[in-house]
Write a structure and sequence with these properties.
alpha/beta, 183 residues, single chain, six-stranded parallel beta sheet
Length: 183
């Protein structure tokens, strides 16, 4: 049997490393799991195609747990559906539908945004699905965060006061069930 492996897909700024990534790495070590945190192009260098090239280098299979933050939550469903990859689990952190706000972010998001068909396909390819979101995310309304969770039919975990789960929010630990990495 292959070992479970955990892969974090960071945000637009790549600052996921400054929030919960270190705790996920620690939990993986404790549970004897492989852990990877690839560096995708950030900010204006980010594109679906450039992220896909990085992700194509990773080992992803039915034992993989993907944890994606912010822009990563746009990338993962599109990528999983395109590659027809079956994975063990997916955790979206501040996953949203249809970003609206800064023009530069809107443009990048349009390039990453999964289709309704991508989301539908992912529901059958991903065994366990969890969405972590907050009631005070500064980038997306709670309605857009919950719509993301609904379209993927995830277990919803509302974390009050967690903001966008980035370094500014001070979130260092994701409230995942104790057995999440061993189930």
């Amino acid at each position: 049997m292959n070992m479970k492996n955990v892969l974090i897909v960071h945000s637009y700024n790549g600052d996921t490393a400054g929030s919960f990534a270190k705790n996920i790495e620690k939990r993986c070590r404790i549970n004897g799991l492989e852990y990877r945190f690839p560096c995708f192009p950030v900010r204006m260098e980010a594109s679906y195609e450039s992220w896909k090239r990085v992700m194509d280098e990773e080992k992803i299979d039915e034992n993989t747990i993907l944890i994606a933050h912010s822009l990563g939550t746009q990338f993962v469903p599109k990528y999983i559906a395109e590659k027809n990859l079956k994975i063990d689990a997916y955790v979206s952190v501040a996953g949203y539908l249809h970003y609206e706000g800064r023009a530069d972010l809107e443009s990048i998001n349009r390039n990453f945004e999964p289709s309704a068909e991508d989301f539908e396909k992912c529901r059958s390819l991903i065994r366990r699905r969890i969405s972590l979101y907050s009631d005070n995310d500064r980038l997306n309304s709670i309605e857009k965060l919950e719509a993301y969770a609904d379209i993927l039919d995830t277990q919803k975990i509302l974390v009050s006061g967690a903001g966008h789960f980035d370094p500014a929010s001070g979130i260092q630990v994701l409230p995942l069930p104790d057995d999440f990495f061993t189930a």
